[in-house]
Amino acid sequence: MKSILVYGAGGHAKVVIDVIEKAGIYRIAGLLDGNKPVGTNAYGYSVLGDESYIHSDDNIHGIIVAIGDNWLRAKIVHAIRAIKPECVFITAIHPQATVARGAVIGEGTVLMAGAVVNSDTIIGSHCVLNTISSVDHDSRLDDYVTMAPHAATGGGVRIESYCTISIGASLIHSVTVHEHTVIGAGATVLSAIESYSVAYGTPARVVRKREAGERYL
Ligand SMILES: CC(C)(COP(=O)(O)OP(=O)(O)OC[C@H]1O[C@@H](n2cnc3c(N)ncnc32)[C@H](O)[C@@H]1OP(=O)(O)O)[C@@H](O)C(=O)NCCC(=O)NCCS
């Protein structure tokens, strides 16, 4: 079994670790985290160092960045790429997730228990499809998108990079959510939502603008 590292040691990382263990494809050699002392134990694994550690271990096949916030996850991915451009970012797909025929899952993306990616849908890199979220047929998620638990889309939607569709929110078929937008918990999106916005309600309306990287969790 090939060895991998998990970047992150928080709540989201715990769930990603569980997905990797259940999938049984990779062995987790340890965790990386810039904010926790070396040796910290998280969910049975030790923190080995920060991203610079990837230079000191030639036996590592790949890594997954298990940081829930889209912007912070991207920062870590970019930092790792700067240190080791050839680094492999693995995907983590729970055995109870479903990926339909024709669907494509980008590198570094995680599908948690019950996630569904339906026919011919393309999921970008470093996305998070959280517990029981679903993206229906012929849709497209760009990179660094999060679908929170129970978020769902109809077919033919487009969700641009750095968007979050919060817990229980729904998108009807064929709508677009433009980049860096957060759709709030429980919202129902019936038409396109502009970029750099926070929108919620039924039907979802933009309630304010947001900056790239603004915290939402
Ligand atoms: C959309 C969201 C980011 C908005 O955060 P925010 O702009 O900081 O909003 P606030 O918490 O300051 O609330 C402002 C007002 O909007 C209301 N509000 C916030 N989110 C709402 C939502 N999703 N639907 C309806 N009303 C909402 C609040 O009740 C509050 O109303 P009030 O002024 O009458 O008291 C946040 O509410 C949300 O939905 N987060 C998603 C969390 C999630 O999915 N977590 C799981 C991650 S795995």
Automatic annotation (TrEMBL):
<dbReference type="InterPro" id="IPR050179">
    <property type="entry name" value="Trans_hexapeptide_repeat"/>
</dbReference>
<protein>
    <submittedName>
        <fullName>Sugar O-acyltransferase (Sialic acid O-acetyltransferase NeuD family)</fullName>
    </submittedName>
</protein>
<dbReference type="Pfam" id="PF17836">
    <property type="entry name" value="PglD_N"/>
</dbReference>
<dbReference type="InterPro" id="IPR011004">
    <property type="entry name" value="Trimer_LpxA-like_sf"/>
</dbReference>
<feature type="domain" description="PglD N-terminal">
    <location>
        <begin position="4"/>
        <end position="79"/>
    </location>
</feature>
<dbReference type="InterPro" id="IPR020019">
    <property type="entry name" value="AcTrfase_PglD-like"/>
</dbReference>
<dbReference type="InterPro" id="IPR041561">
    <property type="entry name" value="PglD_N"/>
</dbReference>
